[in-house]
Amino acid sequence: MSDMKQYVEDVLALVKQRDPDQPEFYNTVREVLGSIIPFLEKNPQYKAAKMLERMVEPERIVTFRVVWQDDNNETHINRGYRVQMNSAIGPYKGGLRFHPSVNLSILKFLAFEQVFKNSLTSLPIGGGKGGSDFDPKGKSDNEVMRFCQAFMTELYRHIGPHVDVPAGDIGVGGREIGYLFGQYKRIRDAYDSAVLTGKGLTYGGSLTRTEATGYGLLYFVKNMLDDKGDTLQGKTVVVSGAGNVAIYAIQKAQEFGAKVVTCSDSNGYVYDSEGIDLAAVKKIKEVNRGRISEYVKYRPNAEYHEGCRGVWGVKCDIALPCATQSEIDLDSAKLLIANGCKVVAEGANMPSTLEAIEYYLQSKILFGPAKAANAGGVAVSALEMSQNSERLSWTFEEVDERLKGIMANIYRNAKKNAEEYGDPDNLVMGANIAGFKKVAEAMLAQGMV
Ligand code: NDP
Ligand code: 2IT
Question: Is the same domain home to 31 and 123?
Answer without folding.
Answer: no
